[in-house]
Design goal:
Helix content is about 70%, strand content about 0%. It has about 110 residues and is mainly α.
């Protein structure tokens, strides 16, 4: 309802926001650790489908599925073709793609949401 009402009710608004931010960060990290890095594909694919803007809202689910398949396939190919003595796991390649994407999403540099 706003900062003014929170202050009027005797709450420390900045402290409460920092505690909430810390709780959300820890819970998101724990969920990612429990699910594995491949679960990131669902988040990245939906954002990619939204940014592509192909068709209307009814097309976002099929486009998101296609984006997810392309992301996992691309990560698998990169992991197999990496110049190393053995293959790199798909989850590691997806994590290398996911970290910069999350930074860009958090900073809001991808433009307006559709």
């Amino acid at each position: 309802m706003g900062d003014q009402l929170g202050v009027a009710l005797g709450r420390h608004v900045v402290r409460d926001r920092m505690i909430g931010l810390l709780a959300v960060t820890l819970l998101a990290g724990a969920a990612t650790a429990a699910c594995g890095s491949i679960a990131f594909v669902g988040l990245a694919a939906t954002h990619a489908a939204t940014r592509l803007g192909l068709g209307g809202p009814a097309w976002r689910v099929p486009v998101a599925g296609l984006c997810g398949a392309v992301l996992v396939l691309g990560a698998d190919v990169v992991g197999r073709l990496a110049p190393a003595t053995s293959e790199i796991q798909v989850g590691i390649v997806i994590a290398l793609v996911g970290a910069p994407l999350f930074v860009v999403l958090a900073r809001g540099h991808l433009g307006d949401r559709s």
